[in-house]
Amino acid sequence: MNRLKAAFMVLVCTGIAMLLLSWSSDVKTDGPVPPAPDYADSTQWFMADRQGEADIFYIISTETGDHMIGSDTSHYADTHDAYQRNRMRHEMHAVDSFYSDRLNFYSPYYRQISIQSWATEEMAFARIPLAMEDCIRSWDYYLAHFNQGRPFILAGFSQGAIAVMEIMKRMSDSVAARFVAAYIIGYKVTSHDTATCRLLHPATGRTDTGVTICFNSVKSPECKIGLITDGNLYGINPVNWRTDTVSAPFVLYGKKQNDTLSAHYDPRSCFVLVDGYKNNKPMPVFGVPGNYHHMELKFYYPYVRKNMADRVDAYYGRKKESN
Question: Running DSSP on this structure, what letter comes out for residue 78?
Answer without folding.
Answer: -
